[in-house]
Amino acid sequence: MKGGDGASGERRRGDSGHGGSGAGRYLMRSGVGAVLSSHSSLSREEWLAVAETDGRRPEARIYLAAPLNEADVIELFGDQVGRDEETFWDDRTDAVVSLRREQLGAIVLREVPVRDVSDERIAEALFSHLRTHGMESLPWTPASRRVRERMAFAAWLEPDDWPDVSDSALLDSLDEWLLPFLGGIRRRAELERVDLSQALLSRLTWKQRETLDELAPTHITLPSGRREPVDYSDPAAPVLAVRIQELFGVKETPAVGRGRVPLVLHLLSPARRPVQVTRDLAGFWRTSYRDVRKEMKGRYPKHDWPEDGGEAKGRAK
User: Quick check: 144 and 196 in contact, CB under 8 A?
Assistant: First the structure.
């Protein structure tokens, strides 16, 4: 190589057979690319001993070289061949892959798959993938998202008593809450079957699980007997989307957190179209309801629209 490096074995990029797409382009042990003139008779050789280049990066032009075969490379540089084993998540196959390699610097001489890999190494490869791509790369379902949001609400309300379920906290503690549920899982299709709800709940004691239902109930039961889900996606402002008629006779805003956190009410028409947003139901009955009632009576005349929504019980149809 130019600069007094001496001759060095370099391998052609691309397919190893004649006619491969890497004709004339080589990878040097240093990781730098090298290229022959397209008219060079050496451009289809698998290996070259390169004596001189122009030293440019990222791809140097080869000025002086001689052909080699792999046996020559092993004879000349065998004591410099490194051997290692790598386990990693392969985005192309959506699976954990383990490979045993022999390398001469940056040049891979041979690579073979390894089948007998410990669960710990498989898990660490998966965790590395998650730390790179984030928590959204896990197979969250609507149910598991709701569990996480309810736990986040409890932690927001009582931070000293509940585990942190933020992205950063969960990524830092994968071996505590997720590892017990992996069991050697190697493929995305297998990962999809992991119950993330149970994995998250495993961080809680049985007492905490009972308390979670009190602090962050999944639903609110309305006077009609209907149960409507609570949305905890914003822990500081949980939402209850409900038809106005379902709240007839309810004077105060329903609350969660054992009564400490009033819900943000998304009040809906009988057709479940947005009408108003409030956190003060009593104030709504006193003020805005009069205009809303007038409009709703015009649009939905077959429904009951009492004058005082906080006192009278209508029939939700």
Answer: yes
Burial tier of 245 (Cβ tally within 10 Å: 0-12, 13-18, 19+): buried
Secondary structure class of 150 (helix, strand, coil): helix
Closest CA to 122 of 172, 186, 190, 170: 186
pLDDT for 3 beyond 50: no
Tokens describing residue 281: 């139901």
Q: Where are the beta strands (DSSP E) in 20-80?
A: 25-27, 33-35, 47-53, 59-68
- Of the candidates 119, 118, 129, 51, the one whose C-alpha atom is nearest the C-alpha of residue 89 is 129
Give the Cβ contact number of residue 118 at 10 Å: 11
Interior/surface letters 94-107, b for 16+ CB within 10 angstroms, e for the rest: ebbbbeeeebbbeb
Strand partners, 61: 35
Distance CA 292, CA 296 (A): 6
> For the whole model, what pTM was predicted?
0.74
221 burial (CB, 10 Å; 0-12 / 13-18 / 19+) is: exposed
The answer to whether 196 and 180 are in contact (CB under 8 A) is: no
313 pLDDT above the threshold of 60: yes
262 pairs with which residues across the strands?
255
**Cα distances (angstroms) measured from residue 33 to each of 7, 40, 107, 226:** 15, 17, 11, 69
Quick one: the chain helix, strand, coil %, rounded to 5? 30, 25, 45
Question: Could you give the CA distance from residue 172 to residue 169 in angstroms, rounded to a whole number?
Answer: 5
Long-range Cβ contacts of 276-279 (<8 Å, 24+ apart): 278/253, 279/237, 279/253
pLDDT tens sequence across 5-49: 445 567 776 644 333 445 688 888 888 888 888 788 888 888 888
